[in-house]
């Protein structure tokens, strides 16, 4: 029948929309499918944050929702937004378009907002009745404690020192991490239901299980023993180590006196931190001596830049060969074809009254010597299996004391990972990390659709105040700028409901399911032209061959 | 009410009495006075609720009419000759879509050579387009047929052409009885289209129809014309009841009862024919005539019945089917299939050539004596034709025939 | 120059480039983003895969449906759009729709508009639509007549630059050098050798009608803005929408929008509006490409890119057309145009 009204002319006049009877899906040789790909930021995050996930809420101005997603993985966003070296941003696809999304700045904004508003994470699991001891209140221990608590376990942290925070407090100067922020986020973890015991050095691990009845123990005591090297000295001046300097900065009631001319020996972030600290403490000359060039230094480039801005003088390609009172003989080095420094036989001298060694730190494993089954690797770190368990059943370890890159973010990630393994172990199970989606590569994006929007620059403290005070160098993004920055996210690999597929289909073969529910293909009508996939900004649609 | 007015003006007023809602106009002689008349009535405010649209071509005129009619408006236009050919595609389309447009044809010859005078070549070219074709014998009938045409078209959802001879009728001043608005309103109900473009009922009109249904669609078009064979006399009957005079119908018979020789023709020439018949009847010849009012649908049965006494039928044809003879004659033969009467085709009045009583008289006499050959050209100047044929035979680059004939005519006339 | 509303929106991740955007105010999202869009052409039509015309027609008509609150009638010329939507016994149209002939859509629409006007239905609006063949060639007379009378019709031309329905023959909108079935890519002068195509938007402007605009399936916001604006006006209006044809242009079925975008970004298809014969608004090129970038993704220009070498001269001719458009319409800001 052409129409249902018998008065209407036969065949020439048709009832509306009757072509729905014609299923053009049979034309298809390729079919579109929605997929979720792993955004490079998430992939790069050592703390395993779902960065794209929380940015999604932040884009809508729904900051608490964003923060809630964030703290599912990381309980310390305000800290992380300040001290993380943000590998997410190095991986960000947007850097190939204009500049990477300033993830850290948005994270910091959310973290600060949470502290201001007093947001608390949502508890997700009922109490299990299991008790876990966490040894060490550094980033790894705090993170593990938080996640274990979320999973329903009773958690006690024992910290040998007088304050929680570990290297966040004793390694990172307050001009990078103000202490009210640090204290605020630690306090929130405690308020979340974690017991924190300070000045409690754990000496006897087996006793914690046997006498105190802990079901599992996670140790994360960090690495705080300064590495030293011997430098021939006729008559050495004052020689300090960076870890102690930064520690004393935190604990000493009196301002430290480091001297008028300070040499920091090393090229890592700690070297930068301690040189900048020296500058702030009034050193007329704060110098860094490093045996390789800027290209090879372990410190992040921006840290060297900021140090130089503040007047720190960096002597690249130099080793200290000899000290005579205040005269330092240094040898010029050059980088060979393998990227290693080689002595040149050329020398020069520098004048300084203090030398601060910033050559890295070792783990204090003495308390583990007597624990049966625990193995110490050759470089002084603790061996753990793929479930982060040591050779002693129920004893897990993480953070700087196990083989890893030593950053706060990695430590926080360890804490989360350990918590999952401990949780599984407590339940007699094995934790299997969910499989990763394929990586969302830049070439899968259709970047035409993103607005042109270069990164916003966070305000910086003026140079005089940077050289003379410990005020935070990098300022906040305000709400509108944080929102702008969040909205620079490309949502690589994951549908963000831009409606492009729904709009560009010439066959109306895409059904819109409503906010948050995304879309589905109507395969009865989809002809497989591929326009939806080609015009998807974020590469969330694949075309796959039709099963014959 | 009676008026001494031009045929075109009378038709314009009649159309206006039918309350058309959209009228499209494009000028072509001899139809111009009709649309000018309607336009003036609209402008004067005598015809209200009517869109009078001047368009850029006949093709556009009928196309505008198609759109207007499909949107439910009573729609009218008029054309002639080349104009009808230029709208040919739309002529078929309007019928195919079943749109009850009424269109006047001021019958005129088709060029080349260009000729503005009357014959039936134009409307005959569209005889199979699916329109109903009514031919007016007089201006009074032209008026009456237009009023009936709207009712017929709208009842059937089929377009209707009312054909009236160019100049002979369109430009002739006669005494016409124009009905009152009340009479017309009583006769012609409001247009209730069977289908209409309407956002409340969003049909698609004008689908592409393939072999699986096209034959059925065409059958239905034929069936509509068959229905019209019933409807045309019925409407004619109602008309005569309302207006007090007979008009329309399928055919008009004149002294044909028992006639041995019957003349068949379309349109105004029937007036002349009747006068000749009167003369010949006076001379004792059994001669009569049938004027065909409805050429499409063609009233085969009615005509066959009207011609049942005839031994011979003379078709006076203002139209030529080159290579065959006459279109009307062919149709008449269809009506007489199986009958014994001889049918003579007389081509007459082409391009406005006057059809003289004497010429008709001679032809009818010849026919009654069965001395007529088929396909006669009335008053053909055989000498000119022979000369031209000879010239064309001998001269390769013989030039345009029409101009040559004009030259020959001049010579022959000397 | 009036401000183009779709350009005044501040940064919202994708701004107004995507069809929808959950960050935008509802009123600034496209009609196409709405689950309530009318789908004036529904699924099951028989357009080729990736058909630009099917897309463009739905974009335009859904937008007009929104603008008229559903009080809309469409008149369609013969052509692809008509054939692929209404083969008996199925139609894809969900609005009242009339097809008469190839060359008369503007006149039929005039009649429809007249009928609604005379019946006092001023709320019902009329769109006539057709491809470039019915618009620039066979229906040109009727279109010009409709313009001249300033009839209350929006005419939309879906320009795919050839007679696609009959198998890709040249029309007066076919660009130079394009291969069609009647301008084969053979001989001394392969492809279309005639002029630069008939520029109907400019011809429409010469009628001094209230509104003329060009639009593209590559810029939905702009297209909807223009259709909505046109439906807010009375009188004769003309919108010329570029709709790539994968079949006729030899482009990939998933490249329809991309090809349309390259046409804009190269300057070969300028997006502008004109009121009463004067240009009032121009869409600036956002990321300029060269004409060659546009040509080389279409097999109809493959003879300009033969293995033995590019036809540099002919490509330069097309580039000059693009440059001319950029200058004529001011498609680039002064500093970026250098």
CATH class of chain C: Alpha Beta
| Share of residues in helices of chain C | 25-40%
Label the CATH architecture of chain C.
3-Layer(aba) Sandwich
Using the 3D structure, state the CATH architecture of the largest domain in chain B: 3-Layer(aba) Sandwich
Computed CA radius of gyration of chain C, to the nearest angstrom: 19 Å
Counted by DSSP, the helix tally of chain C is 12
Number of helices of chain B: 15
List unreliable stretches of 5+ residues of chain C. 1-10
Strand content of chain C: 5-15%
What is the CATH fold-level name of the largest domain in chain B? Rossmann fold
Strand order of the largest sheet of chain C: 2-1-3-4-6-5-7-8
Structural domain tally of chain C = 1
> Averaging pLDDT over every residue of chain B, what do you get?
95
Q: Measured on Cα atoms, how large is the radius of gyration of chain B?
A: 22 Å
Described by its quaternary structure, the protein is: heterotrimer
Q: Spans of chain B with pLDDT under 50 lasting ≥5 residues?
A: none
Protein architecture, described:
- The complex is a heterotrimer of chains A (548), B (414) and C (338).
- With 548 residues, chain A is an alpha/beta fold.
- Chain A has helices spanning 40-44, 51-59, 63-70, 77-83, 87-91, 103-117, 139-150, 167-170, 179-191, 205-210, 242-251, 269-280, 301-309, 408-426, 463-468, 479-486, 500-504, 531-535, and strands spanning 13-14, 30-34, 131-135, 154-158, 194-197, 216-219, 225-226, 233-236, 238-241, 261-265, 285-289, 313-315, 318-325, 327-335, 341-351, 354-357, 361-362, 395-397, 510-512, 519-521, 541-545.
- In chain A, the strands form six sheets. Chain A has a five-stranded parallel β-sheet. In chain A, strands 9-16-10-11-12 form a five-stranded parallel β-sheet. In chain A, strands 8-13-14-15 form a four-stranded mixed β-sheet, with no helix packed on it.
- In chain A, strand 13 (318-325) and strand 14 (327-335) form a beta hairpin.
- Chain B has three domains: 2-243, Rossmann fold (3-Layer(aba) Sandwich); 251-377, Rossmann fold (3-Layer(aba) Sandwich); 382-413.
- By secondary structure, chain B is of the alpha/beta class.
- In chain B, helix 3 (58-70) packs parallel to helix 5 (88-96), helix 10 (269-282) crosses helix 13 and helix 11 (300-306) crosses helix 12.
- Chain B has helices at residues 7-17, 32-43, 58-70, 81-86, 88-96, 121-125, 139-156, 181-187, 211-243, 269-282, 300-306, 327-335, 357-368, 382-394, 401-413; strands at 2-6, 22-25, 51-54, 75-79, 102-107, 132-135, 160-165, 173-177, 204-205, 251-254, 261-266, 287-292, 294-296, 312-317, 342-347, 376-377.
- Chain B starts with a strand and ends with a helix.
- In chain B, the strands form three sheets. Chain B has a seven-stranded mixed β-sheet, sandwiched between helices.
- Chain C has helices at 52-67, 80-85, 105-118, 132-138, 140-149, 200-205, 220-231, 246-249, 256-266, 291-295, 312-329, 334-337; strands at residues 72-76, 97-99, 125-131, 154-159, 211-216, 237-242, 272-275, 278-282, 305-306, 309-310.
- Chain C has 338 residues and is α/β, with parallel strands linked by helices.
- Chain C has one domain: Thiamin diphosphate (ThDP)-binding fold, Pyr/PP domains (Rossmann fold, 3-Layer(aba) Sandwich), CATH 3.40.50.970.
- The interface between A and C is large, with 57 and 53 residues.
- Strand 1 of chain A pairs antiparallel with strand 9 (204-205) of chain B.
């Amino acid at each position: 029948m052409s129409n249902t009204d018998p008065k209407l002319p036969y065949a020439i006049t048709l009832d509306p929309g009757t072509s729905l009877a014609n299923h053009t899906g049979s034309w298809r040789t390729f079919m579109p499918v929605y997929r979720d790909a792993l955004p490079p930021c998430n992939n790069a995050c050592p703390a395993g944050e779902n960065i794209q996930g929380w940015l999604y809420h932040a884009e809508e101005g729904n900051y608490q929702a964003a923060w809630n997603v964030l703290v599912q993985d990381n309980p310390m966003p305000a800290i992380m937004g300040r001290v993380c070296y943000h590998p997410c941003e190095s991986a960000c696809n947007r850097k190939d378009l204009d500049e990477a999304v300033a993830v850290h700045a948005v994270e910091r904004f959310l973290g600060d907002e949470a502290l201001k508003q007093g947001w608390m994470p949502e508890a997700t699991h009922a109490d299990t009745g299991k008790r876990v001891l966490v040894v060490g209140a550094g980033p790894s221990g705090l993170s593990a404690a938080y996640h274990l608590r979320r999973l329903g376990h009773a958690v006690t942290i024992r910290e040998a020192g007088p304050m929680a925070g570990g290297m966040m407090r004793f390694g990172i100067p307050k001009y990078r991490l103000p202490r009210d922020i640090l204290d605020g986020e630690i306090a929130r973890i405690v308020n979340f239901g974690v017991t924190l015991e300070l000045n409690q050095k754990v000496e006897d691990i087996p006793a914690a299980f046997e006498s105190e009845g802990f079901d599992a123990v996670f140790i994360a005591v960090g690495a705080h023993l300064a590495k030293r090297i011997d430098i021939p000295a006729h008559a050495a001046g004052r020689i300090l180590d960076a870890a102690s300097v930064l520690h004393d900065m935190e604990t000493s009631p009196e301002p430290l006196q480091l001297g008028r001319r300070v040499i920091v020996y090393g090229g890592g972030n700690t070297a930068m931190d301690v040189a900048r600290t020296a500058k702030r403490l009034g050193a007329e000359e704060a110098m860094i001596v490093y045996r390789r060039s800027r290209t090879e230094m372990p410190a992040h480039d921006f840290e060297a830049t900021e140090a130089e801005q503040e007047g720190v003088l960096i002597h690249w390609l130099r080793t200290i060969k000899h000290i005579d009172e205040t005269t330092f003989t240094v040898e010029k080095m050059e980088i060979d074809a393998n990227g290693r420094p080689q002595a040149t036989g050329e020398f020069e001298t520098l004048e300084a009254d203090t030398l601060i060694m910033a050559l890295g730190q070792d783990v204090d494993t003495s308390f583990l010597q007597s624990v049966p089954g625990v193995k110490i690797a050759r470089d002084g770190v603790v061996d753990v299996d793929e479930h982060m368990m040591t050779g002693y059943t129920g004893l897990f370890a993480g953070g700087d004391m196990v083989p890893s890159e030593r950053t706060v973010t990695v430590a926080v990630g360890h804490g989360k990972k350990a918590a999952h393994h401990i949780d599984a172990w407590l339940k007699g199970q094995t934790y299997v990390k969910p499989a990763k989606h394929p990586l969302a590569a830049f070439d899968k994006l259709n970047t035409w659709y993103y607005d042109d929007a270069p990164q916003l620059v966070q305000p910086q403290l003026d140079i005089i105040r940077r050289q003379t005070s410990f005020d935070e160098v990098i300022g906040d993004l305000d709400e509108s700028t944080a929102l702008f920055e969040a909205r620079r996210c490309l949502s690589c690999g994951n549908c963000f409901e831009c409606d492009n597929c729904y709009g560009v289909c010439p066959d109306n073969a895409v059904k819109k399911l409503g906010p948050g529910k995304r879309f589905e293909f109507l395969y009865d009508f989809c002809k497989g032209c591929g326009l939806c996939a080609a015009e998807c900004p974020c590469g969330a649609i694949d075309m796959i061959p039709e099963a014959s | 009410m009676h008026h001494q007015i031009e045929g075109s003006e009378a038709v314009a007023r009649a159309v206006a009495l039918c309350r058309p809602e959209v009228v499209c106009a494009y000028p072509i002689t001899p139809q111009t006075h009709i649309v000018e008349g309607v336009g003036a009535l609209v402008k004067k405010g005598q015809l209200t609720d009517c869109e009078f649209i001047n368009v850029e071509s006949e093709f556009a005129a009928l196309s505008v009419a198609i759109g207007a009619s499909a949107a439910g408006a009573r729609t009218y236009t008029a054309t002639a000759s080349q104009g009808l050919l230029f709208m040919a595609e739309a002529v078929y389309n309007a019928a195919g879509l079943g749109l009850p447009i009424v269109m006047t044809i001021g019958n005129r010859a088709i060029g080349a050579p260009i000729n503005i005078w009357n014959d039936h070549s134009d409307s005959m070219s569209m005889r199979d387009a699916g329109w109903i074709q009514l031919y007016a014998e007089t201006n009074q009938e032209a008026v009456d047929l237009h009023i009936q045409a709207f009712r017929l078209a709208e009842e059937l959802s089929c377009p209707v052409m009312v054909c009236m001879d160019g100049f002979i009728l369109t430009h002739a001043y006669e005494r016409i009885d124009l009905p009152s608005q009340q009479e017309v309103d009583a006769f012609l109900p409001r247009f209730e289209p069977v289908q209409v473009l309407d956002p409340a009922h969003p049909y698609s009109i004008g689908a592409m129809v393939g072999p699986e249904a096209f034959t059925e669609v065409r059958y239905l078009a034929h069936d509509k014309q068959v229905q019209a064979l019933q409807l045309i006399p019925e409407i004619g009957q109602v008309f005569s009841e309302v207006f007090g005079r007979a008009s329309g119908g399928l055919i008009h018979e004149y002294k044909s009862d028992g006639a041995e020789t019957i003349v068949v023709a379309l349109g105004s020439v029937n007036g002349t024919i009747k006068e000749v018949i009167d003369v010949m009847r006076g001379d004792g010849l059994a001669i009569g005539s049938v004027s065909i009012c409805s050429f499409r649908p063609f009233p085969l049965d009615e005509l066959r019945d009207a011609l049942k006494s005839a031994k011979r039928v003379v078709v006076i044809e203002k139209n030529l089917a080159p290579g065959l003879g006459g279109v009307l004659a062919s149709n008449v033969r269809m009506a007489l299939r199986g009958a014994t009467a001889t049918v003579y085709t007389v081509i007459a009045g082409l391009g406005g050539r006057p059809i003289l009583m004497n010429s008709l008289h001679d032809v009818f006499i010849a026919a009654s004596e069965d001395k007529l050959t088929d396909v006669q050209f009335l008053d053909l100047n055989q000498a000119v034709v022979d000369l031209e044929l000879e010239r064309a035979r001998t001269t390769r680059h013989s030039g345009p025939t029409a101009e040559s004939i004009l030259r020959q005519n001049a010579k022959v006339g000397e | 120059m009036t401000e183009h509303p779709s350009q005044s929106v501040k940064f919202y991740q994708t701004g107004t480039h995507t069809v929808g955007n959950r960050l935008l105010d509802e009123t600034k999202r496209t009609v196409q983003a709405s689950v309530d869009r009318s789908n004036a052409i529904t699924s099951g039509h028989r357009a080729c895969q990736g058909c630009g015309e099917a897309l463009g027609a739905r974009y335009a008509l859904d937008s007009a449906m929104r603008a008229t609150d559903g009080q809309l009638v469409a008149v369609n010329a013969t052509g692809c759009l008509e054939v692929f939507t209404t083969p008996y016994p199925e139609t894809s149209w969900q609005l009242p729709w009339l097809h008469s002939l190839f060359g008369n859509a503007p006149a039929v629409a005039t009649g429809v508009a007249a009928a609604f006007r005379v019946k006092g239905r001023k709320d019902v609006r009329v769109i006539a639509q057709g491809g470039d063949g019915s618009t620039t060639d066979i229906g040109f007379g009727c279109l010009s007549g409709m313009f001249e009378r300033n009839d209350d019709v929006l005419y939309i031309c879906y320009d795919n630059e050839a007679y696609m329905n009959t198998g890709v023959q040249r029309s007066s909108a076919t660009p130079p050098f394009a291969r069609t079935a009647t301008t084969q890519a053979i001989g001394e002068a392969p492809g279309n050798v005639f002029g630069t195509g008939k520029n109907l938007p400019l011809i429409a402007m010469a009628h001094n009608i209230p509104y003329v605009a060009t639009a593209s399936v590559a810029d939905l916001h702009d297209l909807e803005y223009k259709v909505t604006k046109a439906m807010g006006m009375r009188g004769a209006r003309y919108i010329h929408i570029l709709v790539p044809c994968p079949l006729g242009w030899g482009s990939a079925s998933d490249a329809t929008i991309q090809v349309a975008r390259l046409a804009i970004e190269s300057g070969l298809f300028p997006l502008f509006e004109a009121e009463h014969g004067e240009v009032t608004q121009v869409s600036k090129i956002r990321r300029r490409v060269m004409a060659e970038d546009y040509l080389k993704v279409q097999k109809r220009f493959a003879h300009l890119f033969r293995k033995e070498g590019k036809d540099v001269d002919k490509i330069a001719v097309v580039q000059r057309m693009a440059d001319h458009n950029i200058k004529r319409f001011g498609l680039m800001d002064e500093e970026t145009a250098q």
